């Protein structure tokens, strides 16, 4: 499901996967058609449910961030075994040592959104 959703959201039609041994040596390469992955998983998960959850989650993130100072890191926790849409959020103060751990986007990229 993870490969499918990432590819679906990015508009990628084909995924190339390298299977490897523990020593990181690739021993087999396989390609998957993104739509075929969805069909193979349809007995285990529903695309509509996933997209509805994603939209709901992003709305919650937007609402949480609107109440926080610029630069706040927002962490989320979701217990998917309980099959509900409750998500816990934890924020980390901007500029804190802990926040620096999550600051991985280059400044050049961030400036595109200012």
TrEMBL record:
GO terms for biological process: NAD-cap decapping; nuclear-transcribed mRNA catabolic process. This is Decapping nuclease. Belongs to the DXO/Dom3Z family. Residues 1-110 form the RAI1-like domain. Its EC number is 3.6.1.-. Keywords: Hydrolase, Metal-binding, Nuclease, Nucleotide-binding, Nucleus, RNA-binding. The keyword Transmembrane helix does not apply. It holds the Pfam family RAI1. Coiled coil: none annotated. Decapping enzyme for NAD-capped RNAs: specifically hydrolyzes the nicotinamide adenine dinucleotide (NAD) cap from a subset of RNAs by removing the entire NAD moiety from the 5'-end of an NAD-capped RNA. It comes from Acrobeloides nanus. It comes from the Eukaryota. GO terms for molecular function: metal ion binding; mRNA 5'-diphosphatase activity; nuclease activity; nucleotide binding; RNA binding. GO terms for cellular component: cytosol; nucleus. It is found in: Nucleus. Its cofactor is a divalent metal cation.
């Amino acid at each position: 499901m993870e490969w499918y959703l990432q590819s679906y959201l990015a508009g990628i039609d084909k995924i190339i996967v390298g299977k490897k041994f523990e020593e990181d040596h690739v021993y087999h390469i396989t390609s998957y058609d993104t739509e075929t992955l969805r069909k193979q998983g349809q007995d285990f998960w529903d695309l509509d449910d996933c997209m509805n959850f994603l939209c709901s989650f992003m709305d919650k993130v937007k609402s949480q961030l609107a109440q926080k100072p610029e630069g706040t890191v927002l962490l989320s926790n979701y217990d998917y075994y309980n099959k509900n849409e409750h998500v816990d959020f934890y924020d980390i103060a901007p500029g804190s040592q802990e926040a620096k751990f999550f600051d991985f986007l280059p400044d050049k990229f961030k400036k595109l959104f200012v």
